[in-house]
Amino acid sequence: MASNHRNNANKKLKHHRNQDSDDYEGNPEAWATLDKNFKQVQSVLDRNRALIQQVNENHQSKIPNNMVKNVALIQELNGNISKVVSLYSDMSSNFSSTFHQQHSNGHTRED
């Protein structure tokens, strides 16, 4: 059942992406920026995964010094979460601005 829901969601996403690509294929710079931003987000998320693994190992060790290290690791995690939120916010604003700019300049699928 969950697999079916996921497949339907993927089909809708692909359909939506194909429609949007008609609007944006003429703007490779916008796509390059979006790609760069997604890579930045992925880099931060990968770092968070490593931090979480280290926090878990430190916690399981029950060694006092490792528990102290977790404070800094968790602070870094919190900062990284804020960074991801900011990156997504910037991406949304940039993507929206590009969309509205192209449509206000008369670039539509009907052209």
TrEMBL record:
GO biological process, one term: positive regulation of circadian rhythm
Entry keyword set: Biological rhythms, Nucleus
InterPro entries reported for this sequence: EARLY_FLOWERING_4, EARLY_FLOWERING_4_dom
Compartmental location: Nucleus
Leader sequence segment: none
Biased composition (Basic residues): 8-17
One GO CC annotation: nucleus
UniProt domain Protein EARLY FLOWERING: residue ranges: 27-105
Region (Disordered): 1-28
UniProt similarity note: Belongs to the EARLY FLOWERING 4 family.
Protein name: EARLY FLOWERING 4
Organism expressing this protein natively: Hibiscus trionum
Organism phylogeny: Eukaryota, Viridiplantae, Streptophyta, Embryophyta, Tracheophyta
